[in-house]
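WARN retry 2 of 3 for item q-0093 after timeout on previous attempt; input resubmitted unchanged.
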Amino acid sequence: MAKKDASGATDSSKIWSVFSLVSALGAAAVAKKGLNASWKTATRKPPPENPADPDVQLREAVAWAVFSGAFVGLARMLAQRRAASYYARSTGRLPPGLGKDGK
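OK item q-0093 returned
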């Protein structure tokens, strides 16, 4: 049986939380590099540093927000799925909260 700490969290849920966070942060960093390169290739100019800046055209700001949000979200989801798969292979069960019953 998994050991619980004073807060009631199990060791495996703590391990999964750290593992999930690290994979999501890594994916976001890699996605940002890919995103910037893709934007430069597609538009032939650097991505807007601050899309909220009134000097950035609204069309460009909206395109950047949609493109970056979708790209980073997809990268994080894929990284977390891969991390969950690794966790499941290592422990023989899905990470806490990813089962069909939410456990």
